[in-house]
Amino acid sequence: xxxxxxxxxxxxxDATPIKRVLVVDDSRVQLRIMSSILRRxxxxxWEASGGQHALDLCAQVRxxxxxxxxxxxxxxxxxxxxxxxxxxxxxxGYFILLTSKSEKGEIVLGLxxxxxxxxxxxxxxxxxxxxxxxxxxxxxxxxxLAATLGTLQKLYDDIDKDLQQARLIQESxxxxxxxxxxxxxxxxxxxxxxxxxxxxxxxxxxxxNRLGVYxxxxxxHGITSALVTARMAGYLxxxxxxxxxALERRFDxxxxxxxxxxxxxxxxxxxxxxxxVAEYLTMAYATVxxxxxxxxxxxxxxxxxxxxxxxxxxxFIGDGGLPIGLMENARYDxxxxxxxxxxxxxxxxxxxxECEIQGGQMLEEDGLAQxxxxxxxxxxxxDYLDDLYWRLCQMRAPGSDYVDDISAAMLEFAPDQPE
Length: 419
Description:
alpha+beta; hydrolase; CheY-like_superfamily; phosphoprotein
């Protein structure tokens, strides 16, 4: 059958979601009856005498609405509907099956094939108009939703772009992963679980063989936590000592390390007095004299640092403490110990110990100790941390994602450590 079309779309309102209608029927009489009704309602109408003919037209016309007979020779309406749904389209097309079938099982077949609605034959014009109006409402809502999703996608893309830039900025907070002193080395590992994270590790040195090293974990995740870590990086700056709260100027000549418990109190006072910040943080912060190996440390709600002795033994240091920014008058106690040449001290966030491993369990402290001891002792600084992280990835539960940032700062007290 030849293709017929009218061009009365000018009579339709621009907002009408249905303008192009395809009628499919192997009966010439039924085609003309249906087409005549639709043209009177000012739709653009195309006619097809069978399923394959209709598919060819769909590739050219992209109809908004299809009215197809179910029972046709060759490709029936059910198969045509399946193929119509499989076609790549820029927007949804409403599909009404014309049928004399009324059994529930047959209706289910039609719905499974992709039909949106059904009309019983012979077709009543009032019912046809009502079904088309229902389809128009559905298409209008679908296209409005598509427009909204498009707007949201653009907003998401813009946010994603900003977050990627924010990640670069956050990475700049840890400009160097390895800092070598005369008698030791500090190495850093930072793996955010998202674009940006709430973990921060770092170190600073106001003088020869004197340094401060810290591991911080801000509560929550995402942008707000990342902003707080940026503030903490400023408070513990390795570049601008006059802004570093862990340092104090002596005799207008040099900077000295404040006691770690005093640093924790200063940071706590700063966060609790800032009413614009609801987040708190945990922290392990240590000052180290690399001439003697003496370490002074504070643990503020952070996981206990792991001390790996050169003789192969190990122990976790600290038993808790209050987080920073949680209570205004929190008290922090100093923990003192001494490192021997070859010892390693690892400060880490709970993203390590709470990582889900195979079997559905968390790594926990014992697992971290085993992981650290399994990592070859011959590896140093960032090579050691990278190998430890690789081993953790091998232990992770299949299909699981990291739900928290993973970070660590490792101090190696080794006067004879190679460059």
